[in-house]
Amino acid sequence: MTTALPGSPFLAYRGQDLYLEDVSLRELALTHGTPLYVYSRQAMLAALAPYQRALKGRAHLVCYAVKANSNIAVLQTFAQAGCGFDIVSSGELARVLAAGGDPAKVVFSGVGKTRQEMAEALQAGVKCFNVESTAELEVLSDVAAGLKLTARISLRVNPDVDAGTHPYISTGLKGNKFGIAHELAVQTYQRAASLPGIDVVGIDCHIGSQITDTGPYLDALDRVLDLVEAIEAAGVKIHHLDLGGGLGITYTDEKPPAADELIGLLLTRIDARGHGHREVMFEPGRSLVGNAGVLLTEVMFLKPGEQKNFCVVDAAMNDLMRPALYEAYMGIVNLRQRTDTPAVVWDVVGPVCESGDWLGRDRALNVQPGDVLAVLSAGAYGMTMASNYNTRGRAAEVMVDGAQTWVIRERESVRELFSQERLLPAK
Question: What is the tens place of the pLDDT at every residue in 335-356?
Fold first, then answer.
């Protein structure tokens, strides 16, 4: 008997054991140890398919947001599927190139690009810089002119639209650090068009992450199209519309729109307003990889208490920061469905010396020491936000495709963690 879990048809119990595609997660934990990130390649491609289907026949580019999961095997998967990439550092650019990505399909976002990063991206030949301030625009012009190169740019405009998501991942309001204020956009485009080494090619807008409603997207699009019309009336041509990413996934009971449904609504609005001739770009991250991954962690101790029961596992906030950082809910299940022990309500916590080190609160689990749990929907903003706090090596990563598995990152050893450090000279 097969029982699928919410969020991904590729994750299901077969009998008593949990499988990702055709691979037993329990066997992977025994083979590779825990904590362990495991990703489904088929789930990633299935999440990409509705984006590509909805955009077929249009001038378009889907740029995977590297920050969501930057493992080079993940990037390779999307590069081979025809994607471009949205990067926020020269380190991410290096990863894209190492994975076989095409720099001519790369957009460079982020509020704090250094001169060195700008130079590296220009020399690599990226498609576009998403510029986020007038100060950045001036510096980019200087760097490009100095190299005798041209920086193709769009301005990231801040439409002051509430995405209705967590404050830490909302990016389109006046109080956020991102983008150029809506009311300053036209004059900033005029300035951009006058600068040496700058070629204006588009407009960019990204209002946040984990968005589960189409309304904010449509509101932001209308404000962007208003700006495009004003910018072109001021004499500056706009060739592409970059509408960002941010589409949410199901962590618990969220019901985000399907990607093709959302894109269909946006394209209909674009066409209705006479902008259907422009290239359209999207920058999905979480929606492509979030429900494609799990974090496996072994139960070390059960610690019942008067007020709380604690299930102590070997994964911690350094492995998965989202619960501690956002108080994010992520599903947690036992890899083996137990019938020999009653369900008890536990706080699932890690070994790091912080009270904020928890993966899930008040979870009813049938669990015993030695069991392995799966933290669900861990494919996005999991390993990319991991650290070595408490001198803990980061987890290994495995990719699954059907019945095949590959280790795509080795587990870090303790010695590797301080291999770049040096003792002081002996006195």
Answer: 999 988 889 999 999 999 999 9
DSSP letter at 148?
A: T
β-pair partners for 18: 13
Sign, Cα dihedral of 90, 92, 93, 97: positive
Residues labelled as active-site residues: 353
Give first-to-last CA distance, the chain, whole Å. Answer: 69
What does DSSP assign to residue 423? P
pTM beyond 0.90: the answer is yes
Residues whose CB falls within 8 Å of the CB of residue 35, separated by 6 or more in sequence, listed in order: 295, 296, 297, 314, 315, 316, 319, 395
Calculate the CA 199 to chain-centre distance: 28
Both tokens of 254, joined, read 């969220």
DSSP helix/strand/coil, 155: strand
| Residue type at 133 in one-letter notation | S
Report how far apart, in Å, the C-alpha atoms of 251 and of each of 17, 56, 292, 332 are: 21, 29, 12, 10
Query: Hey, which residues does 95 pair with through a beta bridge?
Result: none
What sections of 234-376 are H helices per DSSP?
259-272, 286-289, 322-326
Alpha-carbon distance 234 to 248, whole Å? 36
Instruction: Decide: helix, strand or coil at residue 35.
Output: coil
CA angle 237–241–245, rounded 5-degree value: 155
